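Moderator note: this is an archived Q&A kept for reference. The question asked for a predicted structure of one protein chain; the sequence and the answer are reproduced below.
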Amino acid sequence: QVQLVESGGGLVQPGGSLRLSCAASGSIFNINAMGWYRQAPGKERELVAAIASGGIANYADSVKGRCTISRGNAKNTVYLQMNSLKAEDTAVYYCNARMSVLPRIRIEDDYWGQGTQVTVSS
């Protein structure tokens, strides 16, 4: 059993900041990459930011310069620092991990958290 648990969402005013956290647990063999996606009402899920095991990160154009993704020392955690938040950042944010789990250590799959709501409103 593998779980991704997110935290840190909430209501924030425009221009404010939030830090999302995600921790993976369970029968994990190896985590390749972790990332954050978001889905606003009526829209498709989109990539916000992702970070590979080597530390290379990539960002959606819409959040470049405002968001920073990082991995924890234990490598099973990922964080998303979001600054200068805008109304259009309002969405459910999902943690994603591409990893292999026991006993299928040669197969990588995508795993998802349950999502955390981020609402940017005055």
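Archived answer notes: The mean pLDDT is 96.
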